[in-house]
Write a structure and sequence with these properties.
homodimer, mainly beta, five-stranded antiparallel sheet, 12 strands, globular
């Protein structure tokens, strides 16, 4: 997987007088049925993630605050995206090392996954990740 | 559908030093793959919903603030559940008239659906809903 496979996913955000809706739908803006959905609430200064997945794709959405997502394909390609409560989420495919930097207290990240939880799907050691992507 | 089919769904909320996770997974605490996920951000005093679905099941989660969910089966059965950021969500099956009362500014509702969006799946008129559940 290379860094070009990390992609912006646009979602509708509908503002009505009685509230605002943000919508994620399989076959519309999400390319898979969502087997696992989780939220992370964290404060400014926290750095989370710092792992890659072997098989799981994830779409990251900022529901509140500001979260910078740093991605690294282990082959020299990197990118960073600032997520806020707007209309842009980030698709992080498997094989990408990703970290989330929380910039504002009480930021909320919503993560939409195509796979259930499997501890064996995580690569948490960066040297192991580099060896895996380089096939060594 | 009767009011007994409206059920509490428990979800794990994991508190770590660097953040709090809330987790929803098909086959674990969610009985279906999530085809549509949406969030609603609304202020105190808003009353949303006020419709029934013909086929769509929804699990309602409060990510922030406080939201009272009022349910009515049209056959005399009603219930109300206060959702907060804890470990309890609410499964609202099709055939139940539901309304969400937002109690605190910037409350956030997360809705996990088993169906995509279909405007024909909504019953927005209460008399029509009563006629449908009574088979008249």
């Amino acid at each position: 997987m290379t860094i070009e496979q990390v992609q912006i996913v646009t979602y509708p955000r509908i503002a009505a007088v009685d509230g605002q809706l943000s919508i994620f739908e399989t076959g519309a803006n999400i390319p898979y049925p969502m087997k696992r959905v989780f939220t992370v609430l964290a404060n400014a200064g926290e750095l989370r993630g710092q792992h890659a997945h072997k098989a799981c794709s994830q779409i990251l959405v900022c529901l509140s605050g500001e979260i910078i997502v740093h991605c690294d394909d282990g082959l020299g390609g990197t990118c960073s995206h600032a997520l806020r409560r707007d209309t842009q989420a980030l698709l992080v495919p498997p094989g990408i090392w990703a970290s989330e930097e929380y910039r504002i207290d009480n930021s909320v990240l919503l993560v939409l996954c195509d796979q259930g939880y499997d501890p064996d799907d995580y690569i948490r050691n960066y040297a192991t990740f580099l060896a895996a992507v380089k096939g060594t």
